[in-house]
Specification:
By secondary structure, the protein is mainly α. The protein has a single domain, classed as MFS general substrate transporter like domains (Growth Hormone, Chain: A, Up-down Bundle), CATH 1.20.1250. The protein has helices at about 1-30, 45-70, 80-85, 90-115, 120-140, 145-160, 160-170, 180-185, 190-205, 210-230, 245-250, 265-275, 280-300, 300-310, 315-340, 345-365, 370-400, 405-440, 440-465. Helix 14 packs across helix 15 (about 315-340). The termini are far apart. Residues about 1-5, about 15-20 and about 255-260 have low confidence and may be disordered.
């Protein structure tokens, strides 16, 4: 009799296990589900609250996304110190950075598709806590395989940062003001990225170890998650306000004043109707592949380059990242505003921005050691112009796909960007070890910078195809 009951018990336990897993998925879905629409507030309240909420969303997404960068851009600054303490080679650091880039690109795409159907408030809070935990763990252990796995995991959960911000900005700011407002928000990664390098360097120097470059940012990111929980909100309808198109009287061409009410798109619609069948999204994705090599070379490798070739100090390497990041703040806002004045011709402005980047990288090839101030000047020029380019690639995608699909579109484009970053880190690390061993460090770095120049030129050619694109074309 007992034997006859065994299959039934096993089947029962199997069903219970399946139900438990299903319940867990449902709980997560409920946590991340978009906030429900509530009854419309009186018009007087709408006029009073809408500007306040728009400022609140801009503030929360700006500071929240900046916090993500504190726990992302901290490794490269202490890479040389980790090599010295743990015996890592350039190629191993390159592998860690490449794995992170791949996992972040994948995470941005996956999380982008999920975030388009989620509440950005809970999505960002969970992501920031998860990336802080990865940083605490990275600083607490010492071993290449576990470091590789942890930083890859960190990259994946970092994908929960940009997409909910894109969703929030798309729902709270209209098409005609998108160039300026998105550009203001987009400088959050310059602020966070610039502070990240300096913070990591100072924490490691004053607290006595590379580990503190991960512990201190982890603590700040945890506080950032609490702040987001208090300040961030979902779309306007979730707090009793009308859609942004109605409030600003700025209706997209494909959904006029009397169009269908807003609804969340299905995953199939997001992927196949808005992203994978859009030729412009594919072109922007390939342009992003090469533009990201220029962007992240100054973050991932420039501190090491300045310390090995230009005799910079640990804090000098951290300042280099800050110079490049902060250089992009005024230009991103200015060129974003200018693209609105140019009737949304972001591609034209992006192409013009690539030309000075090529000139600055070329100049760096010929600067001798002992002129660190000139290297810093060229880095600021690169930062000044590369960040508007990255910003415009995403805004063009938003113009073409709409606010309901921006997380998915940006995630797909970002996946290609981080494939470029991964390819660069893997090849640059190998080049510095092998070419450097044969011909010397300076020659190896010349090869790396020449490769960056070629990739920047390819990005210029691809972006030239978007020269005439406009949001309402």
């Amino acid at each position: 009799m007992n034997e006859a009951l065994v299959p039934d018990n096993a089947a029962f336990l199997g069903r219970m296990s399946s139900l438990s897993s299903l319940n867990m998925v449902r709980r997560l879905h409920n946590i991340f589900a978009p906030a429900p629409h509530i009854a419309r507030l009186p018009e007087a309240e709408v006029r009073r609250l809408y500007p306040r909420y728009r400022w609140r969303i801009l503030e929360a997404t700006f500071l929240g996304y900046a916090a993500f960068y504190l726990v992302r851009n901290n490794l490269s600054v202490v890479a040389k110190d980790i090599e010295g303490a743990l015996g890592y080679q350039h190629a191993q650091i390159g592998d860690i950075l490449a794995a992170t880039a791949l996992s972040y690109g994948l995470g941005k795409f996956v999380m982008g598709a999920i975030s388009d159907r989620s509440n950005p408030r809970m999505f960002m809070v969970f992501g920031l806590l998860a990336t802080a935990a990865c940083n605490f763990a990275f600083g607490a252990v010492a071993g290449y395989p576990i470091h590789l796995a942890l930083w890859a995991l960190n990259g994946f959960v970092q994908g929960m940062g940009w997409p909910p911000c894109g969703r929030s900005m798309g729902h709270w700011f209209s098409e005609k003001e998108r160039g300026l407002t998105f550009s203001i928000w987009n400088t959050s990664h310059n602020v966070g990225g610039g502070i990240a390098g300096y913070l990591a360097a100072r924490a490691a120097y004053y607290l006595g170890g590379w580990q503190y470059a991960f512990f201190v940012p982890g603590v700040l990111a945890t506080f950032g998650a609490v702040y987001l929980l208090a300040r961030l909100r979902d779309m306007p309808q979730s707090v009793g306000l009308p859609p942004i198109e109605e409030y600003k009287q700025d209706y997209p061409q494909n959904r006029g004043r009397g169009g269908e009410p807003e609804r969340e798109l299905t995953t199939r619609e997001l992927l196949f109707d808005y992203v994978l069948t859009n030729k412009w999204v594919w072109l922007l994705a390939f342009a992003n592949f090469f533009a990201y090599i220029a962007r992240y070379s100054i973050i991932d490798w420039w501190p090491t380059y300045l310390r090995e070739v230009k005799r910079a100090t640990l804090t000098g390497g951290g300042i280099a990242v800050m110079v490049a990041e902060f250089g992009g703040i005024p230009s991103t806002i200015l060129f974003g505003w200018f693209s609105d004045l140019a009737h949304g011709r972001r591609g034209m402005v992006a192409v013009l921005c690539v030309i000075p980047i090529l000139a600055a990288f070329t100049t760096i090839l010929f600067i001798p050691a002992g002129y660190l101030w000139l290297d810093m000047t060229m880095l600021s020029v690169i930062g000044l112009f590369v960040y508007p380019v990255i910003n415009f690639i995403v805004i063009i995608a938003l113009d073409l796909t709409g606010k309901k699909a921006i997380g998915t579109a940006a995630g797909f484009i970002g996946l290609f960007g981080y494939l470029g970053r991964a390819a660069a880190n893997k090849s640059f690390g190998w080049t510095l070890d092998h070419v450097g061993a044969l011909y010397g460090k300076e020659t190896a770095w010349v090869v790396v910078i020449a490769a960056i120049l070629v990739c920047t030129a390819v990005a210029l050619v691809l972006l030239a195809f978007t020269w005439r694109l406009k949001p309402r074309a």
